[in-house]
Amino acid sequence: MEIHKDFDLSGLNTFRVKVAAEYFASFSSIQELQNLIEQFHSKNKLVLGGGSNVLFTKNISGVVLHNRIKGIEIIKEDEEFVWLKAGAGENWHQFVMYSVHQNLEGLENLSLIPGSTGAAPMQNIGAYGVEIKDVFSELQALNIADNTVRTFSNEDCRFGYRESIFKNQLKHQFVILNITCRLRKQPEFNISYGTVEKELEAMGIKQLSVKAISDVVIRIRTAKLPDPAVIGNAGSFFKNPLVQISKLHELQKDFPSVPFYNAANGIKIPAAWLIEQCGFKGYREGDVGCYQFQPLVIVNYGNASGIDIFEFSEKIIDTVKERFGIELQREVNVY
Ligand code: FAD
Ligand code: NAP
Predict the structure, then answer these.
(1) Rounded CA separation 284/298 (Å)
(2) Worst-scoring range by mean pLDDT, 63-72, 186-195, 244-253, 299-308?
(3) Pairing between β-strand 174-184 and β-strand 136-143 as defined by DSSP bridges
(4) Is-contact 157 80, C-beta < 8 A?
(5) pLDDT of 28 above 90
(6) What phi and psi, each to the nearest 5 degrees, are found at residue 290?
(7) Which of 137, 165, 179, 325 is at a distance of 20 to 30 A from 104, taking alpha carbons?
């Protein structure tokens, strides 16, 4: 295991912000991670997967631990389901593709989400009407405090909308080592999301399959979202706010066409709509801006610093708050 000092993290965050880690090391097994935790016991520790949901605003003190635990395997199956396990350092999309090629149903709507499988439960990743919690079985994680491994069931993870126990009560206390998903042999497709249904129609697909839905999702995402390999970004910068029905009625008086969706804990208003109404769609200040096709995505056109991006996000929060009385919450993890 090589340990690097003053390690440049610009290649390990999809915003491509230039900051350094005081120390940096990769681990490929539980044992390697346990050794690193012992070695750096008195230092701050930050685990990093693909860096696609972080914004670095300063150099990182302590050690950045890069997860490279690999391996995908079927660990159990019965008549209805297959349990598929992946090392936390596997690329998420490769994991999804593995399941798609085996014709296992459950992950296809989550195709092409960047990052690692280990980070997926962190914010209960979701897209096109599906969240990982819908198929999640269990994970194993290392407790940084005592270097022991613990198993978390679906319930233990306390999944919510872009939330889990690892983002809240247990923040920075556990390193996720592997995850297991329970996938269906007989598909029950979810095409409730409008754009998926429309695209299936546009592509003339009448016979639904795991592969067809995955292809459609990949097509929609490629057309609408900026590729981090080309333009720095971390996906949706803010969560969609949940409001009370009374707030929706108040908004509808001034904005009769406000879009909304019923959600488990309230009414979901698309943050992208609020941001667009404030004139930010395609708006740019120096090297930071809101993406022209999806204003919820803040982009780094070149050499923006983490602070530049953070300040730009503050401006959006303030403007939306002033106009609509709704306070946007960041989805991206800021360090
Ligand atoms: P990182 O950015 O490396 O880490 C994110 C957080 O998780 C950090 O706090 C980190 O410390 C922690 N962490 C990482 N790995 C571990 C681990 N093994 N154990 C404990 N903690 C860990 N998200 C969605 O939900 N839906 C989408 O549709 C979606 N689309 C996106 C599209 C684009 C173009 C981009 C750039 C991002 C998108 N995202 C989306 C956000 C992001 O891809 C996901 O949140 C992804 O799961 C992050 O994975 P990562 O490995 O890059 O995490
Ligand atoms: P979109 O289709 O333009 O829709 C805008 C918003 O409306 C979405 O955020 C979505 O909420 C909500 N929505 C749309 N149709 C819905 C329905 N039938 N039921 C419930 N909610 C609905 O969104 P987009 O930006 O192109 O993203 C497409 C999907 O990919 C979304 O699910 C989005 O969450 C996901 N995505 C996430 C990230 C990220 O970084 N987190 C980045 C890119 C895309 P939800 O977000 O709750 O689905």
Answers:
(1) 10
(2) 186-195
(3) antiparallel
(4) no
(5) yes
(6) -95, 135
(7) 165
pLDDT confidence of residue 174: 98
Among residues 70, 177, 170, the alpha carbon closest in space to that of 119 is found at: 177
**Which ligand 2 atom is the nearest neighbour of the CA of 297?**
42
Average pLDDT, the chain: 96
Residues 126-175 pLDDT 10s: 999 999 999 999 999 999 999 999 999 999 999 999 999 999 999 999 99
Residue 122 CB less than 6 A away from ligand 2? no
Question: Counting atoms of ligand 2 from 1, which one is nearest the CA of 161?
Answer: 47
Find out whether the beta carbon of 332 lies less than 6 Å from any atom of ligand 1. no
pLDDT band at 206 (very low <50, low <70, confident <90, very high): confident
What region does 224 belong to: left with phi over 0, alpha with psi -120 to 50, or beta?
A: alpha
> Is this model's pTM higher than 0.85 or not?
yes
Residue nearest to atom 37 of ligand 1 (CA): 235
Question: Quick one: pLDDT at residue 43?
Answer: 96
